[in-house]
Amino acid sequence: MNNPIKPAARLPSVLVVDDEVRSQEALRRTLDEEFEVFTASSAEDAWKILERETVQVLLCDQRMPGESGVSFLKRVREQWPDVVRIIISGYTDSEDIIAGINDAGIYQYLLKPWQPDNLLMAMRNAAELHRLQAENQRLSLELRTTGPVLKKRVEMKYERVKREFGLDGLTRAPDSPLNPVCDLIAQVAPFDLSVLISGESGTGKEMIARAIHYRSRRADKAFVVENCGALPDELLEAELFGYKRGAFTGAYEDRTGLFQQADGGTLFLDEIGETSPAFQVKLLRVLQEGEFRPLGSPRPVTVDVRVIAATNRDLETEVREGRFREDLYYRLAIVPIHVPPLRERPMDIPLLAERLLEASRRALGKDTDGFTAEALACLSAYRWPGNVRELQNAILRMLALATEPRLRAHLLAPRVLQAGAAGRPDAPLDALAAVGFSGTLQERVDALEARVLKETLIRLRWNKTRAANELGLSRVGLRAKLARFGLDGGKGGDDE
Asked: Start and end of every Response regulatory domain (predicted)?
């Protein structure tokens, strides 16, 4: 008998505050698959929701009638300090937001127009921060009451984190192209050398950076992350270098920058290729001298930080074309590491899918017995242009739509099904695909026909009656074609 699927646990809660209905609905559509979303059109309405609902993350627009976003978040911080506060606006509001970042305790500033992937990543990180803050409060309480017992528990948790984010956390097969990358990590991690990680978006460059950190002598110190492509220069400078009280309007107290927060540990600068030449000059000085000057400070600050940078651009080309400083490139790329895309690692996909499924179970609070063999075959055949991130989203979709204990192939998006039916990566389902097949005209037509049959049957869960109706065939005609192409065994689907 099939095991029943467990009821879903409550998703992380988000309150979206935006007076524009279209923007509010766009944010809701982007978030509601992974979050419990509340919406409000004004600060007053949002306050009422906060009084009656438990909210973990607050995403607020800066420009609203009446009270501004920064002003509202200042009030929220006083009443609900545990709520993680994110503000969203355009470049034109940068000065107002910088001035209010400290007072309002703003966790992140998102620019319009926002990108769904960037927004989701920011919200996931904010929800995780809220969870970690709550856990930290609980551990602090236990520390005061249980002392040695908790110390042992923290040590065990630290070892688990090292395993999860070290080389053991990089899922790969025995013959994976990722294995040479892991060998290189093991060689360079113990030495304080700058590392430049390159690779397509979604390949797991941050995971590589964490693996380097947790294999280094800095493993017990901070690992700090900044996405350089998400902020304009003035905000990025304030984030990384900090500022002194009075440095600009609204700077009422000192703010410690990320370089100081990472002192003794590792600072990961993602999307380094998106920075401007002016900012690159300031970053180069920090790397060369080991010191920087916070905004408004008369004296430099010295830090001991290992910098790991990442980019999805070809920085050598960027240097040749004058968009990236040559001296900074060579300073960052003492050890270059390239992460192969997922399409070059098909042998890793089944293992990676199982690991991502575990994370998806926790995220959605929904249990499953795993994938069917047919589903894993389709996952392995697709090219995954969005790499690991796209694979993770596909698995989240499958789990959310599942009504049976096991995840079946029909839950996949059509483009993934088509690749699985073709038996080769990312093959388009159209007549032109036949041109790529070898053989006579009849052999090419047969190959295309077999592919269409297989994709239709997978999508319809091998229901031959529905497949015959969709394809305009009789059941007898369909069975004859399946026997001809060796597809008559079926996959256990309902034939009624």
From this structure: 13-127
